[in-house]
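The aim of this short unit is practical: by the end, you should be able to scan a pair of folded records and say something sensible about each. We start with the first protein, listed as its amino acid sequence and then its structure tokens.
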Amino acid sequence: MKKRSIFGGLIIALFGIFVMPIVASADEYYKLSEFKGDGNILSSKIQGSEQLYYPTIGVETNWNSDTQTATETGRGILYLSNWFDRYDGVENYTSFSAKIKSTGLDESKKYNVIYKSKYEETNKTYTGKELNTGVVLEVKLPYKEAALSIIEDGTTNKVLYKYSSCDGAVDECNEEFATVKTFDEIGITFGNRAYFDSTELDAIFEEIAPDGKMLVNCVEPDSVEAAESMITASLPIYDDYELYGYMYEGQGYLYIQSVENYEVNKTYEVEYSFLEADENVIAILTELIGDKLSFSWEELEEDYDKIFVVEDLDSINYLYNVQSTINPVAAVNSIANYSSRLHNLTGNANVDFLFDVRAGGSMSMFTEPFIGPMNVVYDGVIYGNINPVGYRLNKIIYVPNDTAKTRDALIAAAKKRISEYLKGIDVDITYGGTIDELGEYEYSREVYIDDNVELVPLFDLEQTNGEWFIVTIGEEEYPYFIVIDSDKMSEPYLKTKDINTNIYVMTDSFDTPLDSRLSAIKLDPDSDEYKEIANKVKVIEGLAFDLNLYSTSLNMYIIKIAGGNFKVYIPIDEKLANKNLVATYVKADGNVENHPITVSKIDDVYYAVFETNHFSTYAITELTNPKTGDNYTSLIIMLIVGALGFVSARLLLKKRNN
């Protein structure tokens, strides 16, 4: 199911879809979470969300547009889908019956009811009288393509035609619709409905949405699709349950599903409220991001440069640091934040990009591609949603061009690079096997060209010795390719800039996750924390900041590092450039720790620069020289002490001589 494994396994969020129109009485509607076939719940995931649709008929819509609002009657369209290939014996999970009832058909004529899907093809003939009374058609829920048509016998006159073709990936479904005017009812019924105890689900709902109300940690979404991703990302994470939130026609819903048993799920109506957007933050984010991350599905499928790739030592940073994570979902959703390209595109701002994996994953040990919407997060608040975006984790380490194509030479070169970067962490590299024994998908990516899927190698196979390797970091083993290519060798470093204060931090430390984001808060002079510092030292121009570094993949603050130092850049006024400044940290025991400051001018901005290996509250203070009078007094005291010392020494020497 969604985002449960960090590596391996095929992740698919959209499934085979067959559309059937329904007209129900005014007081009747269906919730998709209630639809079951053979006693098993049929998935109701459409564009990643379980929706509530009021059944209707004769509605035309375009799959690639806003399907949720493409209605004529305001009641919506009913979509059905299932987990198909996730279960053995798919037939056990997909059978259902369609009830077809018409009005006004010629009772003396015959009509052919034809249903075609991946699993079956049926063709039954009914009289108009039978159809006016209502007939039941047993069918299988399809994957890839299906069609339901009703044709007047002996003619080509279609009184109903519905067609769906899907390949299981987002927005890759095509439908054709024929408006039906003679049928007033196509109903769906299920047998062997299994009921379950929802006590635990009810308890979770009551916990997070008391009285059916819930404040979510995001601004108000601007579309149904964005709401599903933004609200879901704001929900708490449970080990045993998956939670999805969404909006439809102004009503909020919360869908809770058991991880152990997907048949145990329930949808609740909930009243969502949202945080008020900070207009200043929105303006900054718009300027920073704009359309830089706006891609189409076609671009992601065909243009590899649109994918955010994490490989070489960047991948080592990721794999090393997430060994300690307790949240594999957050780790997967943060992979792209380890991409230097993503940092550069967004000005290294302290904006977090939280992905919502919808498609991708791989059976390959060496490469993990993901595609889906991406939430834009600042200071813990979700400000927007970009859809779609793609990223990929490649387990490839590059070595210099002058490396010989031998096993020993490649291992030595790769081990040297990784060991030097990890600074003392145990690293071992051993032979894994030959590349030609692997399937082509293990070292390739899929490219869609003219509706055809082609496999393109991720690297030049001629720049290897034809083998793959096992890299052991600590107690964890990872399969890796070693490829000769100096141009792709990376030197990971973190640069993160707070968009409110323009303070930024840099480090090349291996134990700082590359998805870490700086938060710099200027202290209020009236606050107790500021006053406590001011009692110890003189703060220059109120320059006291609480500095924090947070990693989403680890779900923790980075307080201290062992692999090096952080270099902190604090903007200052030009008049302070020639002063003797220090960055002061007041310890918990009251002692003062000073860090020397150098002043650098970068792009016409003056920065106070200092180094530290831990984050806390720092104040900019000045080391002042003693006054002239104090200098004179000190000199007199030193001369007197010196003279007394000289006299005492002479007397002591004379005494010894006597």
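Turning to the second protein, read its sequence before its tokens, just as you did above.
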Amino acid sequence: MALEGRSRFQSDNIGSWTALRARRDPHRTALVCGDQRTDYAELDRRVGLAAGAIREAGVKPGRRVATALKNRVEFVELLFGTARAGAIFVPLNFRLSSEEVAYALSDSGAEVVFVQADTAAAVTAALELIEGEPPRVISVDGPGAEYVGWREAALSLAPHPVRPEDPVSIVYTSGTTGPPKGAVLTHGGVLTNVENYLADWDLRRDDATLVVNPIFHVVLYILTVPLLYKGGKVVLMEDFDPAAAVRLAEAEEITVWFAIPTAWQMMLATPELEALDTTRLRFVGSGGAACPQPLMDRFAELGLDYRQGYGLSETTSSAMTMGPGDQARKPGSIGRPFFHVEARIVDDAGKVLGAGEVGEIQLRGRNVCAGYWRKPKETTDAFDPDGWFSTGDIGRADAEGFYWIVDRKKDLIISGGENISSIEVEQAVVSHPRVAEAVVIGLPHERWGETPCAVVTTVDGEELDPAVLIAHCRERIAHYKCPTVVITVEDLPKTATGKIAKLAVREQIATRVDA
């Protein structure tokens, strides 16, 4: 008898993947985290029990399960366990302010949130800001941890039937105006994303990767999920330490390695690098921010094949990539579309532009999100009737299909791999009683790629103490979003319509900083 509107294939549910892999490679190492080594048989056992526990806790299919966890085994088992139960996984960036964490919990309607000792305080503070019934909090470690006993007492659950277009995760991405938006990723989209990496990054069953950046971001879907699908080994670093990471890469015989440029700069500067057998590394990759040329030159000196990736939360990470040798002949390019991704450049009217013409980058593919959670207007604005997604990035393409980003339409600042909305920071800046007007731009930073710079005018015309404004902002937004540079000017340049001319501000400040 056919399922009513549901797939008849269990493998459509990504929560089935650990079972399928455990049948083939039960004793192969799946995850390494600290002293904990988990093979595929054990991972699948824990995923099944996690799914059963989630269902027994009253979380029905389609409901939301949140996590505030670092890179650890429980994060992975809850990702697949939530999917297996037919629920929707909501990873939280616990580094955000209490207001921002509370917003994600409220907006998603999460019924359960998993925490660890290091993140419990952040979630507790957020829960105090939530109106109505807060989600149930379950700790995975530390005093009073109930997760292990709760999971082990459950009955293992078989994969809930889903369609490829059904939601599997909500990843919150920084908005340029207003609150953040939750990109709704689907079961089928995650599979297509995996296929993209298998096709273009040539991932193998004998590969091992080390994850140093937080997997509560879409970085989860770059190498972690694809390698677990393929049967490789994923080494999770709970707290990033550059020297320890290089030692771990050597000890675990890492073959494919992705990190944001900031992390790479820190790791390549350690003395431990001398002991790393770089010949074992098939390739290294980076994304989340533009890779500085000196860093790419350093990869070349070490004889490392470098893969640059461009993607968004909305594309489940994969959008563009550079292949072997492309970087040398296409400097500055973000690459060509991944295997199952279409791309084009359009003008403001939606007309498709030709090679060399500058316009907005649009993407289409099964890996692109289904829209924004509970935001129909924003979803309609982001997608055209044919399914093309507007990235907000301004770029150009050449005749070979390589793309370059010219500017960011949304004025996002990317610092250390984190997306920072300049408008959100501006709102915090102008809330200071002495600030009359403000604009926030990204300044180049040797370590972080970019750093927020606030250019302000004051109500009294006197210079504002940068430390005072930075402290003011830190009370309102996450610390990493706060300006690190504050410049007071007499006037801000305006357009003919009276809007602040951001490009003119950038040019003005660049001259001032260089001087």
